[in-house]
Amino acid sequence: MKKFYIVFFLLAPFSLYAYLDPGTGSLLLYAIVGIASSLLFFLRNLGYSIVEFLFSKSSTRSTPKTLPDIVIHSEGGRYWQVFESILEAFSKKNIPVAYVTPEKNDPAFEWAKAHPSITVINPGNEMMTLSWLNHIETKLVLSTTPGLDVYMWKKSKKVKRYAHIFHSPTTVEFYEFFALSFYDDIICSGEFQKPGIIELDTKRNLEQKNFHIAGLSYYDYMLKEMKNLPEAKNSGKKTILYAPTWGLRSSLDNAEQTIQILVDANYDVIFRPHPQSFISDKEIIDSILNTFKKNTAFLLDKNRTAIEAMHKSDCMITDFSGVMFDYLYLFNKPVILATVDAPVGGYEAEEIESELWDVTMGKKLSIAYPENPDQLVDTIKNAIKNKDTIKDEILKVRDETIMNFGKAGEAIVDVSLEILNSL
């Protein structure tokens, strides 16, 4: 048996040896790590409390003293496509709802003028809004924001239930740790989003959540937008949409090489990086834009949604992300998967032992980026030529995973009312 010794060096002219068995040594190590972690979390939460206090005092916007039974929390205008059909359904039923946003120019303000049962509230910037939300009184809060009760957004003691709405056709796997752990209800787009959450809650000894299958309201918006798209012009050239994600799963490090191969092969290229890349990967983005800014075959797309870019393109190159499934489910066009691996470090996937749905299904429905970049053009040509061969499989997966396709807003409202009636 391996032995551990702790040696205490004292001022006295002798040393004291103490035997410590492996089990006790491990317990001691875990105790030290546990104390350090607890101290770190305490200091972090103390910092959040101070920041919240400061922002709560600095908020000058008028907010109603009483709220309706349902409050929707949005992170701003970029999530309008998630909430529009939900608010439309609430409005049709003439049910009072408060929509809370940190953005003064959120599209909800203009929209609400024609929908009197919906009240739009802007308590201030993001910090002020979270501080205000931490103390509201209502029965049900709906949100698509992860991290409830983990960072600055805390559960209010005067709110009875918090329900999370998925805003992407993916699972919890690549959310940050404890992303959905402290919600009471999860409104899913399909059954496939449940197992990972259940596994995490079981491991963490958390109370199992209430699951509701309703669909993906984001697609309600996208399908409506698709009806207004102009007919794609046939210039004789094929267009490739390159939409890399950000973080560890991103292919941005090789983006410049990929784009160069495409423009050299006479493709038009629409480049649509993740919005966070303009902050986290600024040097890479700046280099790409500087290299191709005078190339007429290159276009940077920063529109609020990717719907127009998807419509114009013939094939997409992307990484493991929700936009891959959007392209497949909405347009049934081929996807080239630019990354082989999906690192799980720092994500919920790190603690999920079962099969990762996002990774497995992403590989199943896409075509792998060739090991030799010189073969990329041939890979794209074959993908476009044979695009109809996988269409049936795409639609099969979509129908199995996305319930109420195009009508999720109404289903989410019905679920919300069921939750409300159960209180």
Keywords:
alpha/beta; 423 residues; 15 helices; single chain; 7-stranded parallel β-sheet
- Order of strands, main sheet, comes to 5-4-3-6-7-8-9
Secondary structure class reads: alpha/beta
Rg, Å, rounded: 25 Å
The parts where pLDDT drops under 50 for at least 5 residues are 1-27, 51-60
Query: What is the strand tally?
Result: 15
Oligomer: single chain
Distance between the termini: 58 Å
Per DSSP, the total helix count is 15
Mean pLDDT: 88
Silhouette:
globular
Topology as a string of helices (H) and strands (E): EEHEHEHEHEEEHEHEHEHHEHEHEHEHHH
Most strands sheet: 7 strands, parallel
The share of residues in extended strands comes to 15-25%
Give the proportion of residues in helices: 40-55%
Written overview of the protein:
It contains 15 helices and 15 strands. The protein is α/β, with parallel strands linked by helices and 423 residues long. It has a 7-stranded parallel β-sheet with strand order 5-4-3-6-7-8-9. A 6-stranded parallel β-sheet has the order 12-11-10-13-14-15, with helices on both faces. It has a two-stranded antiparallel ribbon with strand order 1-2. The chain is globular, with a radius of gyration of 25 Å. The N terminus is likely disordered.
